Amino acid sequence: MGPDFLRAIESHRVRTLARRRPGPDSPSRRLLAGWIYHDNMLEGRLFSPTEVFQALDQEDDALDRYLHPLMQEIRRYADTIRFVWAQAHGGPEAFNVENLKAIHRMLTPIAEDRGGQYRETSPVHRDYYQRICSADKVQYNLRRIFEAVRVECDDALDPVAYAADVHHRLMHVYPFRRNPGTTARLFTNLLLLSRGYPPVIVPAGLRAEYYESLCSPDAEDLAGIFRSCVRDFLREMAPAEAKTFTAQVGLS
User: Fold this and answer.
1) What is the number of H-type helices and E-type strands within the chain?
2) Could you tell me the residue range of the domain that residue 96 belongs to?
3) CB of 70 closer than 8 Å to CB of 58
């Protein structure tokens, strides 16, 4: 962590909070597409960029019928991102258990997958291989995370590293059997976005490093990944956002 990094994220935060009045903006098509592509690649779900844009553009009729469920899955993820983006407009209070469950329900619509319901077992065969708490400790450990965030988050010297620690703890809790990683990453981004900070979109190329960082006893390695992701976001996305902001407030 360096002063330039902190200045960059705080500058982004000021612009973001100013743009929220009177209502939230919407994530751009470009941001949605990249977010969907990379976050699902982390899960081994290989959506091509073309498929993502076709789904966002509602081009189902031009595709074979067997691809329609794929289009619906992509749009479901896009709708969940939009939900997180909109909820973040409510500020820090948006980081709550109701929104955690709502995110999981949106990503997990099949009834037998128990959307929004905590796991009742500690599965041996699962998508991630870090240590997880026993099923009977899920609610207790989640409650501890929420309590800690309320007390500590806004005083954190490095908000991105703090979000990495929260994500590390969420993945140890592993609240849900289906879609645990996508849910936890979206919920961690709700923590950041609700305070005006950039989202963390882990690129597919860091899949191995991301999984390994979750197995570490602390979140130091994950924090390094998160900072790298935020730097990339600010480099790629923030210049256009800053230009839009200055035009809106009459500074261009």
Assistant:
1) 11, 0
2) 3-21+91-248
3) no
